[in-house]
Amino acid sequence: MAIHIVDRRLNPGSKSLENRQRFLRRAKALVQGAVKKSSQSRDIKDVLEGGEVSVPIDGMDEPRFRREGGTRDMVLPGNKKFVEGDILPRPNQSGGKGRGAGEGDSEDTFRFVLSRDEFVDLFLDDLELPDLAKRKLAEVESEGIRRAGYTTSGSPANISVSRTVSRALARRVALRRPRPEVLEALEAELSDCSEERRAELMAEIEALKAKMQRIPFIDPIDIRYRRFETVPKPVAQAVMFCLMDVSGSMTEHMKDLAKRFYMLLYVFLKRRYRHVEIVFIRHTDRAEEVDEQTFFYGPASGGTLVSSALQAMHEIVRSRFRPADWNIYAAQASDGDNSYADGEVTGRLLTDNILPVTQFFAYLEVGQENGLSYEMPNSALWTLYEGLRAGGAPLSMRKVNERSEIFPVFHDLFQRRGPQERTAS
């Protein structure tokens, strides 16, 4: 028995539903671009509050079919200036989609307000942790759905047509329900038979029809529904190590840039991933694992030994995060200053212990507010990391001097990309 479902709902505004979906996808891209553009001048707390964005009105028109061409005669009321055959002047194109200067309001942008959740979701929509691949089915809270046979009750959307028909066929065979072919044969014989045989055939046909009515083609006891059950679903486990330099060479502006970067990273991880551990490590000439409050707001100062932070990360990985089960990431922020004698130790720790077990290592170098650091020679740490990356190490490196650069740099580091693009970054 074939089931045909016809959707007779009208498309919105008598427009093509497929065209409308294309329009919505195009509009989403425009809004995302506006969100990223406006986020460059926002503070972290401003991002969490949402706000107003504007998009070009040219891209907000929904496509539709129009009839054009041919010859038409039209009479427009109120025309006292032109007659047939006159050439109309081209409208003024300056000032967007609107009237000329002094002739009324112009309209070139579409403005609307996004809520906090909408703004953050749009900003983080195309970001991800790279190479999130290692999985472990342990201590997970996520659940998946899988098929679990059939049941006699359920939603009409879950009816199993094949199983229902097969059970109905078995029931009809068991109860000896007459087949339509038998009735057709008897009716064909009825047209060419004797009177005595005709009475017998009529009685037999009536008996078969009555039996067919007593034994329906589909009975409620035949109907079977697909059954589903929830099962534990493997969840990718990940840990992000946040390594921040808080030594005396880091000015308040540099620390502010680093903290803004980590605050944005924290929002990103908590918003997009459910099973991500975050380990905060700050260092001067010695490193310590701290809580979130101390990491962002606790005062500290001293000398600089980058290797102390990498050594602390290595010990934590070895004791708590088995590389075979965990996706390990690291984000380091520093002004690039490091002890000359510590460079070799830092490089050896990265090459031998850190990079082989990490999926992604991001280094953010913060500079002075006036931007002069771009014109100065590369720092000791930048030179070291650049040499490692030239040798094929999975390092991504960026520099920032101003607050407005934090958002684009963060988006550039964690945007969704292919393996080849990720290696080149």
Report what the structure shows:
With 425 residues, the chain is of the alpha/beta class. The chain has three domains: 60 residues, no CATH class; 79 residues, no CATH class; 190 residues, von Willebrand factor, type A domain (Rossmann fold). The chain has 13 helices and 14 strands. The strands form five sheets. A six-stranded mixed β-sheet has the order 11-10-9-12-13-14, with helices on both faces. Strands 1-4 form a two-stranded antiparallel sheet. A two-stranded antiparallel ribbon has the order 2-3. Strand 12, helix 10 and strand 13 form a beta-alpha-beta unit. The protein is flat and about 120 Å long.
Layout of helices and strands, plus pairs?
Elements: H1 17-39, H2 44-47, E1 51-56, E2 97-98, E3 106-107, E4 109-114, H3 116-123, E5 135-136, E6 143-151, H4 161-174, H5 180-190, H6 195-214, E7 225-232, E8 235-236, E9 238-245, H7 252-272, E10 276-283, E11 287-290, H8 292-297, H9 306-320, E12 327-334, H10 343-354, E13 360-366, H11 380-390, E14 395-400, H12 406-414, H13 419-424
Parallel strand pairs: 9-10, 9-12, 12-13, 13-14
Antiparallel strand pairs: 1-4, 2-3, 5-8, 6-7, 10-11
Helix pairs in contact: 5-6, 9-10
CATH architecture designation of the largest domain: 3-Layer(aba) Sandwich
What is the end-to-end distance?
58 Å
Tell me the structural class: alpha/beta
CATH homologous superfamily identity of the largest domain: von Willebrand factor, type A domain
Mean pLDDT: 75
Strand order of the largest sheet: 11-10-9-12-13-14
What's the main sheet like? 6 strands, mixed
Question: What is the rounded Rg?
Answer: 36 Å
Strand content: 15-25%
Structural domain count = 3
Spans of at least 5 consecutive residues whose pLDDT stays below 50 are 95-107, 132-140
* Structure summary, number of beta strands: 14
Instruction: Provide the CATH topology of the largest domain.
Output: Rossmann fold
Broad shape: flat
Pfam families: DUF444
Protein name: UPF0229 protein LMTR13_06675
Coiled coil: 183-211
Region (Disordered): 82-106
